[in-house]
Design goal:
The complex is a heterodimer of chains A (610) and B (247).
Chain A (H helix, E strand, L loop, with lengths): L1 H16 L1 H24 L4 H10 L5 E6 L8 H14 L5 E17 L2 E9 L11 E5 L8 E4 H7 L6 E4 L2 E10 L12 E5 L1 H9 L3 E11 L5 H7 L12 E6 H7 L2 H35 L1 H9 L4 H35 L16 H28 L4 H4 L10 H8 L4 H10 L3 H33 L7 H53 L4 H34 L11 H28 L2 H7 L1
Parallel strand pairs in A: 3-8, 5-7
Antiparallel strand pairs in A: 1-9, 1-10, 2-3, 2-9, 4-7, 5-8, 6-7
Helix pairs in contact in A: 1-11, 2-9, 2-11, 2-12, 9-12, 9-16, 9-17, 11-12, 14-15, 15-18, 16-17, 16-18, 17-18, 17-19, 17-20, 18-19
Chain B lengths: L2 E12 L6 E12 L3 E5 L6 H9 L6 E6 L2 E2 L5 H11 E5 L10 H12 L3 H14 L15 H13 L5 E5 L7 H16 L4 E4 L3 H4 L4 E6 L2 E7 L6 H11 L4
Parallel strand pairs in B: 3-8, 3-9, 6-7, 7-8
Antiparallel strand pairs in B: 1-2, 1-4, 4-5, 9-10
Helix pairs in contact in B: 3-4, 3-5, 5-6
Classes of the chains: A alpha+beta (610), B alpha/beta (247).
């Protein structure tokens, strides 16, 4: 307990004394927790609005849908048999409310200059025990005909009461607009849906719409029994040669499937968060090791008064966990702030998205990642501290090389200028840091390649003529991919920010490591520019790895993403060459900053310090 | 004889809590070509700072400095670096070899920086290492060399461009007595070869190899003693004791 109190006191003092380092670690961790915070808040943000509509419409607990191809009249007898069985289902124990069965007609509706497949659900004016659609404007079905549009379809058509829609080539008046949970929102949920009275349905049949099945909605005494009910009353198609599809679904399943775009966005954000968290471990490790190095004097003093290495490690852990706690709070806050804006771009949410409640499980997930990053980042320097008799080794400069570098010798023989050769000499002295740098950069480069490919592919997608009956939904898919691309670009950006932080940290430490050697070089006649060049070259190995590995990795990731709705494209060689050229230039500019700062310092104090 | 070093009123101050500390306080110094000069004095008297000022590793706050007749106190960092390649060789107490370079690569470094071809630089470096009896260690990294070997490599590096002056800061401070003896012998040879040499030292034996001994205290030169070829360590210690130095 006394150890912990001491650790807390020392940790707080360290944080106050070195706020910049603490802030950098906080920023690094917050990038990871922020992305995960957004992901946890986006995921499920469509549930609350869905629940509201579900309650307001007396939504189903179990739904039975039966569909058959409209052009196969031979199935009708079998469909009639299924309808009879569904009526028995409506009287099953536990059922307290029944909606339907409602007949579905198949046809087409004009949307945005093209046509979309359409289901017209035939209902009497109601009211209904189950699934009473929530009218958001206009009126529900009744005298005078007309159609009621599903709200997503109305939004796509920008149509409302008093407007007309063209179904089967015939203009029909819009009576109202309504929301329901029995059908996903158009256009990501297809086909489009309208509600019509039996009288209007007769007109539509005359216009060529054909029957395609029916839907039955049930409410149970206990909604949580839905899965059990479905398992007990499975209505499988008994004619294997038949094209009839009969399936039962619980309200939970329908809710989970109702917002696929949000799930894809959240999934992409989770993947991005995981990727960033992995990289954050590396960054945090470098930062923490460097932070320990700067605390050398304090460590020596503490050891002198009898503090053990374990207690010193405890101080570090307390300090870094305190920073992690800050990052968790900020990350979750960012999530709460940004999630509604991101989720609002969804075309599937029934109303205004709402981040789900901040449960302990969600907080724990973000906290676990931040704590894991800190623990993994601290573990290596901590183990070294415990293993060795003194923590001084943690702060020592890099171990002198064991043998002369062959690559540098080769470079010298090939006529590489002296600063370049000196840089190559230094390059592999801190392989861990070099690989950390490389990892950050290569993930960023790979993400940029994917984003470039996605941009080209989406460009093609927007030019591609829509398939008949899919005009609006193709556009919606394009929007979804645009959102995914934005997330990937943002991830690439964050990865590059992390890589930049990494590069600055590593270059700063490299400059610190190289200070003595560079002072000597200047003492024997190397100019400041030559020492800057040597330091930059020593760091460029990370860039080489990032470009050589990152570009193929990005292309590989893209090949995994291709398919589905995305047109296949190859990323242009020009773009890849530009990327390969830009990364080292930008990286060199970044790492030259600490090198220049070092070169400005007078030589004598550096030599004396050494 | 021409003047290699001509310093007039050199001042170097360091900030302190109170008034700035004048580490070098108006030093006038002339060193002739081929002359070996030792500088002694108590710790903190400004010896090393003076040496750093003379080699451009630090900038004077006031005063004039000419090396080889060229005014150098106003040179930029880059100009100083280029000037040092050609005109100044340094030998440090801590050797300060670049630990990523082998012995021979350390020696040839100033020559390469000067633009000498790799082949010529290597030939010159090997020649010097042979002369200093460390040629067999040419391919080793500094980490693998003894202190005496490292200091001989450092001396070779200082000499490779045949500089106007070699500035040595406590060159035997980190060496055992045997290695110190080797370095003393080396400096005696340099003196005979008329290499201009300025040595800052605490060691009276090293000081005794010089033509002239300067004694510093509180940033100023308080005494100059011309040493004969038979200058003895005891004599130097005695003269320092008269001045109250710690020798």
């Amino acid at each position: 307990m006394r150890s912990l109190r001491l650790a807390v006191r020392l940790a707080l003092r360290n944080l106050r004394r070195r706020p910049a380092q603490g802030a950098l670690l906080l920023l690094t961790l917050t990038i990871a927790t922020g992305v995960l915070g957004v992901a946890t808040s986006v995921y499920g943000s469509a549930d609350a609005p869905w629940d509201r509509v579900w309650r307001a419409t007396n939504g189903f607990h179990v739904s039975l849908g039966v569909y058959h191809p409209p052009d196969e009249p031979g199935n009708r007898a079998f469909v009639a048999e299924l309808r009879r069985r569904s009526e028995h289902l409506a009287t099953a124990p536990g059922v307290i409310g029944v909606g339907g069965p409602w007949t579905h007609l198949y046809g087409s509706i004009e949307v945005g200059g093209g046509s979309e497949d359409l289901t017209a659900e035939v209902r009497d004016p109601g009211p209904y025990e189950v699934d009473q659609p929530l009218v958001t404007s206009g009126r529900w079905l009744g005298e005078g005909g007309g159609v009621v549009l599903e709200s997503g379809l109305a939004a796509t058509l920008q149509a409302g009461p008093g407007d007309t829609v063209v179904i089967q080539g015939r203009p029909l008046p819009v009576r109202g607009v309504a929301s329901t949970v029995s059908r996903g929102r158009f256009p990501l949920s297809r086909p489009a849906q309208v509600w019509v009275t039996p009288e209007t349905a007769r007109q539509l049949r005359d216009l060529g719409m054909t029957e395609e099945g029916f839907e039955l909605q049930l409410r149970l005494a206990d909604p949580e029994d839905a899965a059990e009910f479905v398992a007990a009353h499975s209505l499988e198609a008994t004619d294997p040669s038949s094209a009839v599809i009969a399936y039962m679904e619980t309200w939970q399943q329908r809710r989970a499937d109702s917002h696929s775009d949000i799930d894809i966005l959240a999934g992409t954000l989770f993947a991005a968060g995981a990727l960033i968290a992995i990289l954050t471990v590396a960054t945090a490790a470098v930062l923490i090791t460097g932070r320990m190095a700067t605390q050398l004097r304090q460590v020596g003093t503490l050891k002198a008064v009898g503090v053990t290495p374990r207690q010193i490690v405890l101080v570090l852990l307390v300090e870094h966990l305190a920073i992690a706690a800050g990052a968790i709070a900020i990350g979750l806050g960012i999530g709460r702030l940004l999630a509604p804006r991101i989720a609002a771009t969804s075309v599937t949410v029934l109303g205004t998205p709402e981040p789900p409640p901040l449960t302990w499980a969600r907080v724990a997930m973000v906290a676990a990642v931040a704590c894991a990053v800190v623990l993994l980042g601290t573990i290596r320097p901590a183990l070294r501290g415990i293993r060795q008799s003194t923590l001084r080794s943690l702060a020592a400069g890099p171990r002198p090389p064991r043998r002369p570098g062959r690559l540098a010798r080769l470079a010298a023989n090939l006529g590489v200028p002296l600063p370049g050769v000196l840089g190559i000499r230094s390059a592999w002295r801190r392989p861990g840091r070099l690989l950390t740098n490389a990892a950050g950069l290569l993930l960023g480069v790979a993400m940029i390649v994917v984003a470039l490919a996605l941009r080209d592919s989406l460009g093609l997608l927007s030019l591609k003529p829509s398939e008949p009956g899919h005009a609006a939904s193709d556009a919606a898919v394009g929007i979804l991919y645009d959102q995914v691309r934005a997330v990937i670009l943002a991830t690439a950006g964050l990865l590059l920010v992390l890589a930049t932080i990494n590069a600055i940290i590593v270059a700063t430490f490299a400059a610190r490591d190289a200070a003595g050697n560079h002072a000597v070089l200047r003492a024997v006649g190397a100019t400041p520019r030559q020492t800057v060049t040597a330091l930059v070259v020593s760091q460029l190995g990370a860039c080489a790895i990032a470009v050589v590995v990152g570009i193929p990795l990005g292309l590989g990731l893209w090949s995994l993403m291709e398919g589905g709705d995305l047109p296949q494209v190859s990323v242009s060689t020009r773009a890849l060459v530009l990327l390969a050229a830009a990364v080292p230039v930008v990286f060199a500019a970044i790492v030259s900053v600490p090198a220049r700062l070092l070169a400005r310092r007078p030589v004598a104090p550096l030599l004396t310090y050494e | 004889m021409s003047e290699v070093i001509d310093a007039r009123g050199l001042v170097r101050r360091y900030p302190a809590d109170g008034p700035p500390v004048r580490a070098v306080d108006g030093v006038d110094l002339v060193v002739e070509a081929g002359e070996t000069v030792s500088v002694m004095g108590p710790s903190g008297c400004g010896k090393s700072t003076l040496l750093h000022l003379l080699g451009g590793l630090e900038r004077p706050d006031a005063g004039e400095l000419r090396l080889g007749g060229r005014r150098v106190d106003g040179l930029s960092e880059t100009q100083w670096a280029i000037f040092r390649r050609r005109s100044v060789g340094f030998v440090f107490q801590a050797f300060h070899l670049v630990d990523e370079l082998t012995a021979v690569e350390n020696v040839e470094l100033p020559a390469l920086l000067l633009g000498v071809s790799r082949r010529d630089a290597r030939r010159r470096a090997m020649g010097l290492l042979e002369r200093l009896a460390v040629a067999e260690r040419a391919g080793h990294l500094p980490d693998r060399l003894s202190g005496g070997e490292q200091q001989r490599v450092a001396v070779a590096r200082a000499l490779i461009n045949e500089p106007l002056v070699v500035l040595a800061d406590e060159p035997t401070g980190n060496l055992d007595s045997r290695a110190t003896g080797d370095i003393l012998k080396l400096f005696a040879e340099l003196r005979q070869a008329r290499q201009t040499l300025l040595i800052v030292t605490h060691d009276a034996r090293v000081a005794s190899t010089a033509d002239r001994l300067l004694t510093m205290r509180d940033g100023t030169i308080v005494a100059q003693t011309r040493l004969g070829s038979g200058a003895s360590v005891a004599g130097i210690l005695a003269s320092l004791a008269d001045l109250g130095g710690d020798g």
